[in-house]
Amino acid sequence: MKSITRFVGSSVLSLLALFLLLATAMPAIAADAEFKTVSSEVLRDMLEEKRAFTLVDARTNDEYQVAHLVSAISIPDKEFEKNIALLPKDKGALIVLYCNGVKCGKSKKVAQKAKEAGYTNLVIYADGFPVWEEKGFPIVAGPEYAKKIDTRKLSPVQLKQILAEKKDAYVLVDVRDEFEFAEGHIDGAINIPAESFAAKSGVLPKEKGIIVYCNSGGRSYSAYRKLMKLAYPSIFQAILAEWKDAGFPVVKSKL
Asked: Which domains does the chain have, with CATH numbers?
């Protein structure tokens, strides 16, 4: 009987110790929890219905000046303290923050700083500016928005050499439609159509070079611009027509 009593007593003490350990750990877990998120369509509806909330662009001020969501204010991560007065006085007011998509951490950094400043109703628009723009939702465009960019183009010979010698360091992306990809694409390419490129770009690793191509350059130029806005550091463009003209092969696949 005494042994049973000792067993029960030790079990209760063990459970109590476990409870205290979990109780101590809970604040750390809560502090690291993800912020709530909002979809593109819901955020669009919120803006159209003129709901009361503050929209924060957490990208750099230069990016904000090029283009931003309607009614957004600019509070870059590194300038939070300087611009905190732009946030509402009511610490419980709804604040939605965005940056350059799912792989951009700037909106979460600003949200964390706002949380530390006492704000309690913080939501992240995770898709960010590139997807919003891709969906054709309203933006405020500055004079630099339509400025043409110079892409880093690869010749067919350069691309062939990369695929032969450094394939693991790059991702080759065919940005044409699915049926065009099936009819003939460069071996090793993946297919992400240009019209949904930003929305599906999460599969592309930022630590690798990204090579985008299409038939003649228009759609791959668009994808290249989106990659720039998504802050990919190493981007290249190739042209399928030039690849074929050089006599290099394409492969077919099933839809």
From this structure: 36-141 (3.40.250.10), 156-245 (3.40.250.10)
